[in-house]
Amino acid sequence: MSEDLHKNICNQNLFKVFFKKHSKNLHDFLYYKFGERLNPQDKVQDAFIKLWENCKKVPPNKAKSYVYTIANNLMLNEVAHQKVVLKHQKIKPKEHSNESPEFLMEENQYRKKLENAIANLTEAERVAFLMNRTEGKRFKEIAEILDISTKAVEKRIYGALKKLRKEIEGL
Amino acid sequence: MEKEYLIKKWLDNSLTPKELEAFKALEDYEALTKLSNYSKGFKATEFNEDEALKKVLHKIETKKQSNTNWLQPVLKIAAILVLCFGAYYYTTTLDTTFTTDFSEKITVDLPDNSKVNLNALSSITFNKSDWKNNRNIFLKGEAFFDVEKGSSFNVNTTTGTVTVLGTEFNVKQRNNFFEVTCYEGLVQVTYKNNKTKIKPGESFLVLNDLVINNKTDYSKPQWLSNTSAFKSLPLKEVIAEFERQYNVKVEAKNINTDLLFTGRFTHDNLDLALKSITQPLQLTYKKSNQTIILKRE
Questions:
Q1: How close A73 gets to chain B, by Cα (Å)?
Q2: Which of A95, B119, B212, B214 counts the highest number of beta carbons within 10 A?
Q3: Does the distance separating the beta carbons of B13 and A118 come in below 8 Å?
Q4: Nearest by CB to B12, which of A23, A138, A168?
Q5: What CATH number matches the domain at B95-225, 2.40.110.10, 3.40.50.300, 3.40.605.10, 2.60.120.1440?
Q6: A71 at the B interface (CB within 8 A)?
Q7: pLDDT in tens, A118-142
């Protein structure tokens, strides 16, 4: 690993590479875990700034978990048990544009239900599930990001899927 | 658990074509894809990596600057100190100058307790800080020196240099007039590379490039007691001295100012002084404003 060649991440080029590698995943992680209200963008930036300030103390192999922990803590400081709000992107699938008003209404209802159901998932489940579904990440990738086993990821996602279906379809 | 296996494989995007067929055949297929499709709508807001990185780097830069903020006041203080020290150093190493105006006489104490009496319209310049190694004085005009014993003491004038070790002497340097009178000790005058030693009671006079050796009967120059004394000196020198002491202009158009004058005039009484000058030479004077006109009787 090229990272291990360096004692720390104080070199700006290293830092840039590191940022590009992890910032988006961290952002998505925060977003799915805490929702959009708490401004995950800012937390990502703040976490990386913290990393830079402490770059001499943080070994490169710990840097990733460092920014995740920092960002997570920054979020937690603000959370105060707010309900997670995920904004559903209003991308209207074109093939449905000719559908009847009943269909559109039904579709809207479905979306609302899903939104609720996702908000009701545990943080761990929600993060894993949305990373998998919306970002198209595979179990192994998610496992790496979250520092857990693939099996655990699988369990979380599958569990989330079951919960969602139960809540939406009444299964 | 065939179904759960297939769903998990589907979630992981790792279904083989054969498995995909089986998955599609599941009764849940429809509901699962719907759920999955709608879930996609909850995608995180766009995260612009480059933009964010730029912001982070910018913040790091500005923080770095704020970290160095403490340096700024320190630098300011340092700059002020440097300036103060520089000014102090500059002024202390700077030459000190004392100047007198018309009809003004002052006494200057030199760093080694030597005393200088400065006659009207004269100036001395010397370096206080370097005084110990370098007792050098630049003189313009006339001054009486009472020099403490010590290393050599030089009085530099445009005409000549006077060197002593410890003595009392008077130096007068005005235009073409250069006179050194010794009252105590021994004085050496360097004039045009010629060195002349002057004993107490003697004076060394250069007038229009002519060297004249005179004697004096006084133990102090007369101007110290507010009188100017002359011994066979041209009238113009007397007039010049008179002008310096009284800050007046003297016109002597139709008079031969090369006439030699022996005598004295006081610095305290203009009329008396004028009389002392004019009467021996059989002249009269007329005052008008700041000008005094001398005439033949």
A1: 18
A2: B119
A3: no
A4: A138
A5: 2.60.120.1440
A6: no
A7: 888 888 899 899 899 888 889 999 9
Closest CA to B207 of B157, B161, B250, B173: B173
How far apart are alpha carbons B53 and A47 in whole angstroms?
12
SS3 at position B185: coil
Find, among B95, B135, B94, B139, the residue nearest to B118 by Cα: B139
pLDDT in tens, B15-61: 888 888 888 888 888 888 888 888 888 888 888 888 888 888 888 88
| Nearest CB to B52; choose among A44, A138, A157 | A44
- Judged against a pLDDT cut of 60, whether residue B126 lies above it is answered with yes
Gap from B83 CA to chain A (nearest CA, Å) = 36
Which domains, ranges and CATH numbers included, belong to chain A?
2-79 (1.10.1740), 94-169 (1.10.10.10)
Architecture of domain B226-297: 3-Layer(bab) Sandwich (3.55)
- Identity of the residue in B28, B39, B60 whose CB atom sits nearest the CB atom of A114: B39
- All structural domains of chain B with their residue ranges: 1-32, 95-225, 226-297
ipTM value: 0.74
Using a cut of 0.90, tell me whether the model's pTM lies above it.
no
Closest chain A C-alpha to B87 CA, distance in angstroms: 42
